[in-house]
Design brief:
Chain lengths: 750, 152
């Protein structure tokens, strides 16, 4: 075992600590260098741990630090603990708790190593373990990268098991029985005579009992909650009765309401503004300049938005090209430019020699900027006093927010409290915090009074920090009815440094893997196979969008592969299977053939189907899309999807994430883009930024295999194959090969 | 002016052009109806006025005539409406932010169309946006709700 491996393993040690009236179980960090979020609850001299389970006389609390944006993260985290703890999670309080650096995400960076996910050799694995160390140093409590399940799968069950065995030990001490003779059931320790002692009655004594850490996890065959169909989500009743309280619903005594208008040319300054009209409007309390914009504090959100609309602001220029035409020219100029060369992580065979003669097939692809546009607009509630700053907001990055608020207010970070709220979607948007920074500035102007700031939809979409636009040039060759050479060059602005620059006020050095994620790392054995990333200059500030680099690379890579297969005269599915050099992925492709009855289906007139494959976040996904070319346009009839992300822990929610990912991928490919004029997007609401509707939604059939050796997350990997599978199906139905998204610029949809 | 919401009459002192949505949310603290777009594109703000689904972001409070019902008045966790019950049975919600509006739209639709065809469901429910892509389960839940309401 390498040294790096030991460091990673040590973080799994679970310990316990006394809290007022009870006990907490959680990750015990040997060096205790990272402060503990529960510290305020602990008496002097008592052990500090990062808790996942708290038990006192009033009940059991499960702490689920990964944010729930709608993907069901709270439920799965609670279920992982409850499975070993032997409680019904519906009887527990489930809370994200206070953010703390010990909740760092050791997995989110793991796929940034220069090995494709299907390479699980010793060097690749050691590198992945080592990536947990910088994440810890950066205190990266991040929800993202489809990492919640892989990062929590062992820790949270261990926390549940240690808590259970320790409670049994306390009961053993009390009764004089042996721990081995006791069992647990539904929040109780059960004695051999069948009598029960509630965990809540054992909690106080558990605090003084050394934790039982020599535990092993149950075999999946013994699971009662995990892997079972019809496990309800814990938030479902609240979300169907209007009783879930999202960040935008947060309410406090004496709270004021606010909205902001910032320079629509991102990063441009305010030259000056005239607030005369706004000042006289009903309910307006204060007009406050904020970074790059102006905010209005009022007694009602609508009044604040009306007053913001009445502001007359003169904007300074943004420092990126003003129009989409100039932006795409800049991206295209990067390809092949030596100075823009960023990385080449795939270079098999000899592409230059292979393409030196004979018929070379060439194509160009284009990907637009896309807004995340979760349905709940960005908002935050902040109260600043002389010595503390409290923040209520739905976020994936609570510690980055804490540190930024500390910087803005001058209040020490340990006196900045971030209360993570339920979220109305994210898709990556809540990895940003501009709206929180603005709200902190507003709250500083009315010290002691809480201010809830809500962006209008128009403000939200204008300041979305979109998915990067990208272009590619592809060249390839077929020989003897087979794909022989594949060369893809991608041009994109760097996403990671744009995002990190905003979060940390510093740039991160080195190549930006997101430029080619989803193309260089595909498990195909093409004899001459090369993928090159070119880094275009920073333009519109950009961010992570559900499935990140694979959302665009998945389209370009699989789309061009489909072109080559067509040129070879091969069957689209059979040739992908032949080329696939990774066993787990090949089985996924074969299974989608069975599920869609690929070999046996006669689609009939005006119909077509396409297959696409993309491995992202370590998860191979294959999809088949069937379409009909109707008089009204293309109708998507059916989608078949096969995935392999290892064991499925919550089948119902898993299926929801698979179908949701497919619909998200299809919908944006069909009709969504942000185009730029005067530095700002020309789309700022759902009338112009099109979103898929129910009548356009196909029937979806899915199947999950579990041949994969590692458990993975499923929130993102089903997005990337949807766009190419649809475009490939349209080609099959119409003969029209569409290489530029969105598709509805080139063809109508019914 | 007086406003009757979920059976309770409130006195509100607001300008008549304020959209009903913001009166409900910021003046009365009734936050089930959501702000999503403000231009009648998403339907997250859907409430009933005398049983009929309306976009509360577009309805000026001064123009309200009738009894207002929000998601909170349709049913509660302890006493679910058939549509909410069907939504829970099918585990429809992901982020859940659009679902207040989806459920209010479905409840009103099923009064006027108690035995809808698939096409009628697609037409009626396409005015409400869901960014998470819960549409297949919405389709299924509307059918289940129709059966529940018809006593099946």
């Amino acid at each position: 075992m390498s040294k790096a491996g030991k460091i990673a393993r040590r973080t799994f040690i679970i310990g316990s600590a006394a809290i007022v009236g009870g006990v907490a179980f959680g990750t015990y960090l040997a060096k205790r260098a990272i402060p503990n979020p529960l510290l305020n609850d602990l008496a002097d001299g008592e052990a500090a741990i990062t808790p996942y389970v708290k038990i006192d006389a009033s009940g059991v609390t499960l702490i689920t630090p990964r944010a729930d944006k709608g993907q069901g993260a709270y439920s799965i985290q609670a279920n992982l603990i409850a499975e070993e703890l032997d409680i019904d999670p519906r009887t527990a309080t489930v809370t994200p708790g206070m953010p703390g650096p010990a909740y760092y995400n050791g997995t989110v960076l793991a796929e940034a190593v220069p090995f494709p996910a299907y390479d699980q050799g010793a060097i690749a694995e050691a590198m992945r373990s080592f990536m947990a160390v910088p994440a810890k140093l950066l205190q990266m409590q991040i929800t993202g990268g489809s990492s919640t399940v892989p990062d929590s799968y062992v820790n949270l069950r261990m926390a549940g098991a240690v808590a259970r065995e320790t409670l049994k030990q306390v009961a053993a001490n009390k009764t004089g029985l042996a721990r081995a003779d006791l069992r647990t059931e539904d929040g109780h320790v059960v004695l051999p005579d069948g009598s029960k002692i509630a965990y809540t009655e054992l909690a106080a004594d558990a605090a003084g009992t050394p934790p039982v850490t020599d535990v092993s996890l149950r075999d999946p065959s013994e699971w009662r909650i995990l892997g079972k169909a019809n496990t309800p989500r814990l938030d479902m009743v609240a979300k169907c009765t209007g009783t879930e309280t999202y960040g935008i619903d947060h309410s406090m005594e004496g709270m004021l309401f606010a909205s902001v208008r910032a320079n629509p040319g991102i990063g441009g300054y305010v030259v000056g503004f005239d607030a005369t009209a706004a000042q006289g409007m009903r309910g307006v309390e204060r007009i406050v300049p904020v970074k790059h914009g102006v905010g209005v504090i009022a007694d009602n959100t609508w009044r604040a938005i009306q007053a913001v609309n009445a502001l007359n602001i003169e904007w300074g220029p943004a420092d990126y090209p003003a129009t989409s035409a100039e932006i795409f020219e800049t991206l295209e100029a990067a390809i092949g430019d030596e100075d823009a060369y960023d990385h080449r992580q795939r270079d098999d065979g000899n592409v230059d020699d292979a393409l030196a003669d004979g018929e070379v097939i060439e194509a160009s692809y284009r990907i637009p900027y896309l807004a995340h546009a979760p349905l709940e607009p960005m908002n935050a509630t902040v109260r600043v006093t002389d010595d503390a700053c409290e923040i209520w907001t739905g976020t994936q990055i609570p510690l980055f927010i804490r540190d930024k608020a500390a910087k803005i207010t001058g209040i020490p970070a340990e006196q900045v409290f971030v209360y993570v709220q339920p979220m109305g979607g994210s898709f990556g948007h809540r990895l940003e915090m501009t709206h929180v920074e603005q709200t902190v500035e507003l709250a500083m102007a009315v010290k002691g009074t809480p201010v809830k700031m809500t962006w209008s939809r128009e403000e939200d979409m204008t300041h979305d920090y979109p998915r990067p636009a990208a272009v590619s040039k592809a060249r390839g060759k077929v020989v003897d009815g087979k794909v022989a050479a594949f060369d893809l060059s991608v041009g994109q602005s760097a996403m990671a440094s744009s995002w990190f620059g905003r979060l940390m006020d510093m740039s991160i050095p080195g190549p930006d893997a997101t430029i080619t994620t989803g193309s260089w790392d595909q498990p195909f054995d093409i004899p001459h196979y090369r993928v090159t990333g070119y880094r275009a200059p920073d333009m519109v500030p950009v961010s992570s969008w559900r499935s990140v680099g694979a959302s665009s690379n998945g389209f370009m890579h699989d789309g061009f592969l489909d072109e080559l297969i067509h040129a070879a005269g091969a069957d689209p599915l059979a040739e992908r299977i032949r080329l696939c050099g990774h066993d787990t992925s090949r089985k996924v492709l074969e299974a989608v053939g069975d599920l869609s009855n690929w070999a046996g289906t006669d689609l009939g007139e005006n119909r077509g189907r396409g297959v696409a494959f993309c491995m992202s976040f370590g998860v191979p996904v294959a999809q088949v899309v069937e379409v009909t070319n109707t008089e009204a346009g293309i109708r998507i009839d059916k989608v078949y999807c096969v995935v392999d992300s290892g064991p499925v822990l919550d089948p119902s929610n898993f299926e929801a994430q698979v179908t949701g990912g497919i619909i998200f991928g299809l919908g944006h490919a069909m009709g969504a883009e942000l185009t730029y004029a005067d530095h700002m997007p020309e789309q700022n609401n759902f009338d112009t930024y099109e979103s898929i509707r129910l009548y356009q939604t196909p029937v979806i059939e899915m199947k999950a295999l579990s041949n994969a050796s590692k458990i993975r997350g499923i929130g993102e990997p089903c997005v990337p194959p949807a766009a190419p599978a649809l475009a490939n199906a349209i080609f099959a139905a119409t003969g029209q090969r569409i290489r530029k998204l969105p598709l509805n610029k080139h063809i109508s949809f019914a | 002016m007086k406003l009757t919401v979920n059976g309770t009459t409130h006195d509100v002192d607001v300008e008549p052009e304020m959209p009903l949505l913001w009166v409900l949310r910021d003046e009365l603290g009734i936050t089930g109806p959501k702000y999503g777009c403000g231009i009648a594109q998403c339907g997250a703000c859907t409430v009933h006025v005398d049983g009929e689904a309306v976009r509360s972001c577009q309805l000026e409070v001064g123009d309200v005539e009738g009894q207002i019902t929000t998601i909170e008045g349709l049913g509660t966790p302890a006493a679910l409406h058939a549509v909410q019950d069907a939504w829970i049975e099918h585990q429809v919600a992901q982020c859940g932010y659009c679902q207040s509006g989806q459920i209010m739209a479905a409840a009103s639709f099923l009064i006027s169309t108690p035995a809808p065809t698939d096409e009628e469901i697609d037409d009626a429910m396409s005015a409400n946006l869901c960014r998470c892509g819960t549409y297949p389960r919405i389709r299924a839940a509307v059918k289940t709700a129709a059966a529940k309401l018809n006593g099946a």
